[in-house]
Amino acid sequence: MKMKLLSRLGQSVIALLGVALLLFVMLRVIPGNPVAVLMGEHGDDAVIARMTEELGLDQPILTQFFRYIGDCLRGNFGTSYSLGKPVLQLMGDAFVNTLQLSLAAAVFAWVLGIVSGVIAAVRKNGILDHLFMGISLVGVSIPVFMTAVLLQYFIAFRLHWLPISGMAGWQSLILPAVALGWNSAGSVARLVRSTLLDILQEDYIDTARAKGRRQMGVLVFHALRNAMLPVVTMMALQFSSLLSGAVITETVFSINGIGRLAVQAISGRDVPLLQGTVLFATALVILGNLAADMLYSVLDPRIRKGG
Amino acid sequence: MRMNRQRELADQHLRRLEDGEGMVNSFRADFFRMFRANRLAAFSLLLILLMILGAALAPVLTPYAYDDMDLQRRLSPPSAEHLLGTDEGGRDILTRLLYGARVSLMIGVVPTVLSILIGALLGMLAGWYGGITDTVIMRLADIVLAFPSMLLAMLMMFALGDGIINVVLTLAMMNWASVARIVRAETLRLKNAEYIDAARTIGVSGPVMLLRHILPNCLPTLIVLFTLNVPTAILTESSLSFLGLGIQAPDASWGLMVNAGKNFLFNAPWLSVIPGLTIMVAVLAFNFLGDGLRDALDPHLKDR
């Protein structure tokens, strides 16, 4: 068990290093000296040369890479070209917003997904089943920006029920969270339904029924408990797509999060900021996957004892 | 009880796969059976064909050009003359939707084909040869899959620059990894089949084995993956274009139209809503078709 965890941890570290390397290589592919690009037509050659040297951009690529990794480990992600602040500080502020948004979206997705998935499974082929599964398919297919734009238009602009944008109080979090969680809710609902349908055919469910447990008890204590295993795995996978969706949601609702920061980095051709935000978000995903794996082995006695 | 059922299903599947010539027949039979049983999938296929037709016949179907400006009629709501209204430059929205379908469908199909070719090749190599080949390919796939997809796409577009070709490359590079994982698993499973043993005994070499025996048996899986990855590609392109990082004007893509419309959301919402709904319908159609094909061709994919 310990060995397995260690090797899984090793894999994560390798993946993270690989991500950093890939990022570094991709951002060095960009033609042109970033300093010259940054300064535009006003830059004079002497200043450009001095800044290039200060930023270490004249060093060999490999030296630059190892220096970058070393700096990252010490928590130094460089200074944003366009916003003039340390990347770490910018990301710290943004992370709080992104975390709030993703958590709210995840809670929305899981509650809606699990409840509608359970109802659909119990009423298999009934009206509610078809209705929920139809909605969930639409939920999976609708682009995040579409949900966001529609919610913003109808709920905030036409009905004035909730703030249009920004991040002030919990009310302003509702629309972005629903927009972001909508897709995941669809996938969670479909997964819960199909897992539950499989489980309801298991022998131990018959046993529980035979022992005289009520439908509700069987459902919650015997079926749902076991159906949660794949849902836990899915949470980790959804975390990655939540971060992807956050890029869009934060842009539409003007929330200063990691995703919006990345978009700003691109429009400002701000390499350190882009490198920092993408590395940070990917590290979060890798950590999330690792956590899900561990959670999975804690929750599933077959893995816990077998390892 | 359940284990037995699963084993039975797996056996059936293997028997079907082992039966080389029979596979082609049953493949075709499965395909047609699906359309009889699954009306939704059949309808979706029809819808997709209609979209392709609309995109191809755009110049015939509409009297306007996709960049015809009419500044007298900016932002006009749907009318008899302009069935879906006009945008901020007075361009006909239906026309742009039809021309946009060319880009959006192409962006859905071309990168998906590329990513499936790359993914299938790497997946087969990893599964068949194992060892260091397997480790290198799969760790690379891990790295690609670790990125939140949107951020990877943005990063690649930043590094490569704008333009349709770069969007295609970006989407292909993003999606090969999941294909490779599935094909690798499939190859590992097929590796133990008896007919592979048989082929090995008569001295069939590695590359021939992969192309003649493994690849054809992965085909149903690949077809299903294709149908399910096209909508993902369409969605990613539209998100990129929505952020202004994908297709650039004057080219029209559905995502770009939503992006252009979002500035007029509060006085002309149809500008964004119509292309947005079109994206949704296209994605839904591909998903329904993919689900139908999966149920018909490849039952064991269902769990993934």
Could you walk me through the main structural features you see in this protein, from its secondary elements to its overall organization?
The complex is a heterodimer of chains A (307) and B (304). Chain A has two domains: 2-73; 87-304, Orthogonal Bundle (MetI-like fold). Chain A is mainly alpha-helical. The model of chain A has no long low-confidence stretch (mean pLDDT 81). Chain A is flat and about 85 Å long. Chain A has helices spanning 2-29, 34-39, 45-54, 61-73, 87-122, 127-141, 144-158, 171-199, 203-210, 215-252, 258-267, 271-299, 301-306. Chain B has one domain (2-71, 81-302): Orthogonal Bundle (MetI-like fold), CATH 1.10.3720. In chain B, 76% of the residues lie in helices and 0% in strands. Chain B is built from twelve helices and no strands. The longest helix of chain B is centred in the middle third of the chain and has 37 residues, at 93-129. Chain B is elongated, with a radius of gyration of 23 Å. Chain B starts with a helix and ends in a 7-residue tail after the last helix.
List keywords for this structure.
heterodimer, A: 307 residues, mainly alpha, MetI-like fold, 13 helices, flat, B: 304 residues, 12 helices
* Count of the separate structural domains of chain A: 2
Beta strand % of chain A? under 5%
User: Over the alpha carbons, how many angstroms does the gyration radius of chain A reach?
Assistant: 24 Å
The CATH superfamily of chain B is known as: MetI-like
Q: How is the CATH topology of chain B named? A: MetI-like fold
State the distance separating the first and last CA atoms of chain A. 5 Å
Indicate the structural class of chain A: mainly alpha
**DSSP summary, beta strand count of chain B:** 0
Q: Average pLDDT across residues of chain A? A: 81
Helix-strand pattern of chain B, N to C? HHHHHHHHHHHH
Percentage of residues assigned to helices of chain B: over 70%
User: How would you name the oligomeric state of the polypeptide chains in this document?
Assistant: heterodimer
Largest interface: A-B, 53 and 45 residues
Based on the coordinates given, report the CATH architecture of chain B: Orthogonal Bundle
Give unreliable regions of chain A as ranges. Answer: none
Per DSSP E runs of 2 or more residues, the count of β-strands of chain A stands at 0
By DSSP (H or I, 4+ residues per run), the number of helices of chain B equals 12
Largest sheet of chain A: none
Tell me the count of domains of chain B. Answer: 1
